[in-house]
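Newbie here. two chains, one complex. Structure please?
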Amino acid sequence: MSEGPTAFGHRFADRSLLEQALTHRSAAGRHNERLEFLGDALLNMIVAEALFLRWPKADEGAMTRARAQLVREATLAGLARSMDLGAKLALGPGEMKSGGHRRDSILADALEAVIAAIYLDAGFDACRAVVLGWFEPLVAELVVGKVEKDAKTRLQEWLQGRGKPLPVYTLVEARGDEHDKVFFVRCDLADPVDTASGQGSSRRAAEQCAAAELLARLDVPRAPRRGPG
Amino acid sequence: MSEGPTAFGHRFADRSLLEQALTHRSAAGRHNERLEFLGDALLNMIVAEALFLRWPKADEGAMTRARAQLVREATLAGLARSMDLGAKLALGPGEMKSGGHRRDSILADALEAVIAAIYLDAGFDACRAVVLGWFEPLVAELVVGKVEKDAKTRLQEWLQGRGKPLPVYTLVEARGDEHDKVFFVRCDLADPVDTASGQGSSRRAAEQCAAAELLARLDVPRAPRRGPG
């Protein structure tokens, strides 16, 4: 018996796990949403540990920000593309036609599902080794304490530091069906009076977008003010 | 050499890890915030896997809601109390005086830190076994598909199901210092016109509180409309 091909840095004993991980809910058969749930938790844990061990003096806030940057959808989609995951995806005809195999959210979700598939196939240590292999170059690029705070945090801190009221975020609209929603958000400042709109694939993403717009207008510098590590 | 006492269901080879896990940031010495970061990720992963294995047909949404209920601060604080964790905590004099060893947030954070300490002391399998021991009775009590959706989700679904505008949440005020903040939130409905206030130790908790108030006024039934498993 041949050992079979490796996929994503792992040789699957049970290929059906890999198959399920690469099946979008739009396709026939068992899809990857349950695996994505488990894979997301595994990914968060493995990256948390990597940062914990690599940055022995970083505080919780610095590690939280670094992890958010490493596991965000755009980063995962980039990794998935570097592994040509899109070409291996099973999608329904509608998603095929609309280019679903190139969409960030579908790629990121499938990569998380692959993580769970490896875990179920070979256990925690094997899964961690594979995931660390993917992320190590990205972790190595991060400089402790230099991970930028997100736009909402920076906007809030800038306002608080000046004794000004907090920004008010309002969900204006959410369009599209459950799996392809676009959120439209407004952010209002009372002092200085200003308002900006943002949109994104989650309410949070839309809020970040609006906050970033206001930060740019307020000319808030991007460098973090203190390094934790 | 004696094997030493077990604490929290685990016999620590390196007692300094346990000591750090039980040291609040207000006390002298190495405190538990970094461990809490890692422990939170471990807890989320271990509970995710437990739900994934126990509920083979539950969808991602049902598992996400069940996990949120299991790992929320009040649940963790309850577990911590059942282990008499508060009495073992090292706190600074200010926190001692103000009853910090009874506070939900401090107890929950310390319990998460203990999870990380066990992981670092003895590895993933040992950590998982201990954590599952704590949570199994709670997991067993949950009925698949019967985990209630949170108030914000139910309010949103109720409004969407009737073609009405989404609720608008506004942060009115955040009082107190970083580690003991209280958030005040307002939730406005356009149709029917109504408004409610909520407060909580996080913005999200305050929003849930306001949404729950509106749900009660709208007389929305509490039973979930569909079971996933």
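Moderator note: Residues 151-218 of chain A form a domain with the Double Stranded RNA Binding Domain fold (CATH 3.30.160.20). The interface with chain B takes residues 33-34, 36-38, 40-42, 44-45, 48-49, 52, 58-60, 63-64, 124-125, 166, 168-171, 173-174 of chain A (CB under 8 Å). Thread marked as resolved.
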